[in-house]
Design a protein that fits this description.
single chain; about 80 residues; alpha+beta; two-stranded antiparallel sheet; 2 helices; 4 strands
Length: about 80
Amino acid sequence: MGVLKHKKLTSKRGVSLTKDICAYVGLDGGDPVDIAAEDDGTVTIKKHTPKCRFCGDNRSAVRVMGIEVCPACAQRLAKEVNGNA
């Protein structure tokens, strides 16, 4: 592990990432992050990786009108919308 910090949650259960941690992982203010909680109490914060809402592909997904979708699912959606299913 590269950097480890001890932080307290705010009264509203928020936490701020320190500038050095953000710099270490390449995060800037406003960047999206993914937060995962495990059964063992582990909480992980990672840079957000776009993931297709429909099939889960995270290699080629892009955000379109607020929805992350891969080209294959976008093509299937276009066919459904245009009635060419």
